[in-house]
Amino acid sequence: DTEVTQTPKHLVMGMTNKKSLKCEQHMGHRAMYWYKQKAKKPPELMFVYSYEKLSINESVPSRFSPECPNSSLLNLHLHALQPEDSALYLCASSPSLAITDTQYFGPGTRLTVL
Amino acid sequence: AQSVSQHNHHVILSEAASLELGCNYSYGGTVNLFWYVQYPGQHLQLLLKYFSGDPLVKGIKGFEAEFIKSKFSFNLRKPSVQWSDTAEYFCAVNKAAGNKLTFGGGTRVLVKP
To answer: Within its chain, how far is the Cα of A27 from the centroid?
Structure first.
């Protein structure tokens, strides 16, 4: 099973809302990632978790708050977002942070901020 | 600045034509190189990857890529495309600690039946 699942598939939220994105994998991977992909642009790394601890934060605004409650689950909590945060949010996982490890991507959550 | 460049933003070709997509990177030293594909409405999937050894790498669905270190290039090829190869193709480089992938801008390929 090489599947990374993400819920919800689509999310529309207002600028004052609080919402969460969920990512799950059951491949036993110990590294998980959040990427942001704007329309017609490549994915850009936001956060990296390794063994449930935040390893990399690519200077992401605090209105995005990641959480890794266990080795299979990765959340992204959203609060007070701006319309320019509308994008496809991709989750990925890999066996570890070794640079030879392949990252497996989920289908993404398409977020619209009104 | 370190970057990954894909020079072709859009490619349109007919079925059975050959495909070559360019990818250049500006990192020095040892790099790991990837090609990912994103079919319409689907998630990013790995086509192939290069870490070391034979610079000609074969991937899934008949794709191959050649790593030319002197040219900082990792071009993707397919001898004969099918309509189902219509997708966006991303080159990516992994150099830094933490398995940080940096993607090129992507190339949208449209294969006309």
So the answer is: 17
Tens digit of each residue's pLDDT (9 = 90 or more) over B54-75: 999 999 999 999 999 999 999 9
The answer to whether A90 contacts B99, with C-beta atoms less than 8 Å apart, is no
Most distant CA pair in chain A: distance in Å? 41
- Cβ of A99 within 8 Å of Cβ of B43? The answer is no
- Is there a contact between B99 and A43 if contact means CB atoms under 8 Å apart? no
Q: Give one DSSP letter per residue of B18-48, joined into a string.
A: -EEE--EE---S--EEEEEEE-TTS--EEEE
- Closest residue of B to A35, CA-based? B101
Close Cβ partners of A21 (under 8 Å, ≥ 6 residues apart): A6, A7, A8, A11, A75, A76, A78, A89, A91, A109, A111
Q: pLDDT, tens digit, for every residue of A54-76?
A: 998 999 999 999 999 999 999 99
